[in-house]
Amino acid sequence: MIKSFNYLLKKYIKFKGKKRSKMQDRERDKSEFNMAVSYLNRINYSFYIANEASRLNNAHAWFMELNILYRELSTELNEDEIKEFDKMFSDVSPEVSHCLKLSKKGMNQIPQNTFKKLSDIELKLRETMKKSGLQHKVKDDPRFAL
Q1: In Å, how far from its chain's centre is CA 59?
Q2: d(CA 85, CA 124)
Q3: pTM of this prediction exceeds 0.85
Q4: Is the pLDDT confidence value at 48 over 90?
């Protein structure tokens, strides 16, 4: 009882006179766990789906999966890289729409220039992943690499 009273008294003194929101008044426990494994699993799965879509000549599915990967990796990009990706996506978008119309007619071929543009986006996303240390651990000392 005394212990809880002392705790409340300290808390009252600490926050006395300060205007704080209800959210700021609550102290949050920090988790020992994070979303890193889940995040990497999502990225891995998206790359798998992108590979399958390209293998099956499904430009629309490939394009959509690359957009998902772009959003997942956006926190690793600087402002110039974001602008570059936005331009790359906007350049290929009309071509992907055309491929979607053709696929609805039973023609599942991706023109070479569209395939190249989608491939370039994917390679750039993979490069971003590697530079960010998401593909392999970045350790200076090889003893801690595994």
Answers
A1: 21
A2: 9
A3: no
A4: yes
Q: What is the pLDDT of residue 6?
A: 58
Find out whether 72 and 49 touch, Cβ atoms under 8 Å. Answer: no
Q: Over the stretch 52-108, which tens digit does the pLDDT of each residue have?
A: 999 999 999 999 999 999 999 998 999 999 999 999 999 999 999 998 888 888 887
Q: Which sign, positive or negative, has the C-alpha torsion 51, 55, 60, 63?
A: positive
Please name which of 12, 72, 1 lies closest in space to residue 39, comparing C-alpha atoms.
72
Length of the chain: 146
Contact 129, 81 (CB under 8 A): no
Q: How far apart are CA 34 and CA 47, in angstroms?
A: 22
List, in order, residues 6 or more apart from 145 with CB less than 8 Å away: 137, 139
Q: Give me the residue spans of the domains in the chain.
A: 36-131
Residue 12 has pLDDT above 80, yes or no: no
CB 118, CB 59: distance < 8 Å: yes
